[in-house]
Fold:
Amino acid sequence: MKKSIIVLSLLIASCTYDDSFDVLPVSVSLQFPDNSPMPHAGARVEMTDRHASVFVDSTDTEGVAHFILPPGIYEVASSGTLLTYDYRYIYNGIKGQVVITADSINSIKLPITVTKKRIVH
Structure:
């Protein structure tokens, strides 16, 4: 009986689950070309890790998206459209192999390519 209780207590102790893990603050700054409207709030920014988990945020008025992420290797992407009265701006940017660790700065600059299309009224 004593042996069964010891085995049972060891089994229960070995099955505990620790659901805590490290997360880090990460900022992504969109770097628009000089001839485009920049920065603007609400641009969608995605960070995808090697397990295909996608983390999404939108930029603030300074063109920066803020994430809280576990350490790892990510791909950062942003794309979308900005409409004005006379033009449609289509922007795209992608950066791969971004390493997020506790001992790095974790401030990413994402270069953005902008295409400008005139809207005919």
User: Anything to note?
Assistant: The chain is about 10% helix and 50% strand.
